[in-house]
Amino acid sequence: MTHNTPLSPRPLRHLSEIHRRVMTAAQLKSHGVGTAETNEQCRPGGPWQQLLPGVVLLHPGPPTGEERLHAALMYASRERTPGVPAQPNAGEEHAAPAYPEVMITGLAALTLHGFSAAPPLTALDTVDVLVPRMRRLRSAGCARILRTAALPTPRQVTGIPVAPVPRALADAVAELTDASAVRRLLTEAVRGGHCEPASVVRELNQAKLLGRPHVVDAVDSLLAEGRAIAEDRLYAMVHEHGLPDPVWNVDLRLPGGPHLGGLDAYWPEQAVAVELDTRAPRQEEDALWSEYARKRETLERLGITVVHITPKKLRDGTEQQAAVVRTALMAAADRDPAAYVVVLPR
Predict the structure, then answer these.
(1) Quick check: 256 and 341 in contact, CB under 8 A?
(2) What is the predicted pLDDT for the residue at 279?
């Protein structure tokens, strides 16, 4: 018997390359390799090794990062999908095997998403795998099992199901105590365009991580970073889509009266305002939303049209948001004149 291919009455040509190097005990049985033979091959100094319970590495050297990922997924999904996982159809040689209801999360997922602040796969002691809460499965070896009541929709990265960036971040941050490492990961998530701050804070809040001081500090930096990026996108939207120049970052007041609120952009002649909605979904969200609503109602009673734009809409639908603002500017001629307000730099 060769050291990396089991004797089998069934050919292995249909298996992907990774499944010629990592297989479950059930898969080996389906290829004619029984438990006794598998144990013999996995003896100390033998050609194979048991990487995880029921998962065998079909060569003697250390596993690669890819092999550890697939081994962890096989371990987590083997009870639900016994035997050989789904393989490519004809003409689909590079299709990935199916790992239903499991996915890589945490630092390993961030590495797969391309985070430079995440360590390489070979440097990770454990691989976090997200599974449904009702699964009766324990962490073992390099596979750390994390449970959730609601599995997110995974992304396929090089044939591996991976948790979305906000969820992967929350699972990674839960295990980190280094404030600078947390800050680097959160900052890269926003600066690298992986996701918006609100989605990250929502996951951190659901994971009950916002009570940790080093996480709170990192979130404050994250929100500041996200607002700066959103302001740059708003500036670019105005100029790239030929909108008239507004006055930027201003406060409005009634003459001799109260402060009306700050705005990110304001067109005085048309009495049209744009406000970036960068609220974070934290416990005080209701209070923040009440403040937004109060300001908008006050301004609109004075005849000022307020356009709320979220950072996500600016990123994914700049042209549509520019059209909304342009429509508001054009409609100004058909409205009654707005009340006179004092415009001050913010």
Answers:
(1) no
(2) 67
Radius of gyration of the chain (CA): 27
Backbone angles phi, psi at 225, to 5 degrees: -65, -45
* Enclosing H/E stretch for 231: helix 213-240
Residue pair 54/78 in contact (Cβ under 8 Å)? The answer is yes
CA atoms within 13 A on the CB side of 81: 17
CB 130 within 8 A of CB 167: yes
d(CA 79, CA 250): 60
What is Dmax (Cα atoms) for the chain?
Answer: 92
* Long-range CB pairs of 231-239, under 8 A, 24+ apart, other chains included: 231/264, 231/276, 233/311, 233/314, 233/315, 233/318, 234/264, 234/265, 234/274, 234/276, 234/309, 234/314, 236/318, 237/314, 237/318, 237/321, 237/322, 237/325, 238/265, 238/322, 238/325
- Asked if residue 319 lies in contact with residue 237, where contact means CB atoms within 8 angstroms, the answer is no
Eight-class DSSP state of 118 = S
Q: Are 126 and 143 in contact (CB under 8 A)?
A: yes
What tokens does 140 get? 């073992």
How many of the other CB atoms lie within 10 Å of CB of 270? 20
Q: Are 344 and 268 in contact (CB under 8 A)?
A: no
How buried is 335 (Cβ within 10 angstroms: 0-12 exposed, 13-18 middle, 19+ buried)? middle
pLDDT score of 211: 87
Output the six-digit token pair for 251: 């406060």
Mind giving me the DSSP string for 39-61?
Answer: HHHTSTTSS-EEEETTEEESSSS
Separation of alpha carbons 144 and 152, rounded Å: 18
262 with 346: CB under 8 angstroms?
Answer: yes
- Kindly list the averaged pLDDT for each block of 10 residues, start to end, along the chain of length 346: 44 55 86 85 86 88 90 81 41 53 95 94 93 89 92 91 96 93 92 87 91 89 85 94 94 87 92 84 56 84 91 89 95 86 88
Residues 6+ positions from 99 with CB-CB distance below 8 Å: 73, 74, 76, 77, 81, 85, 161
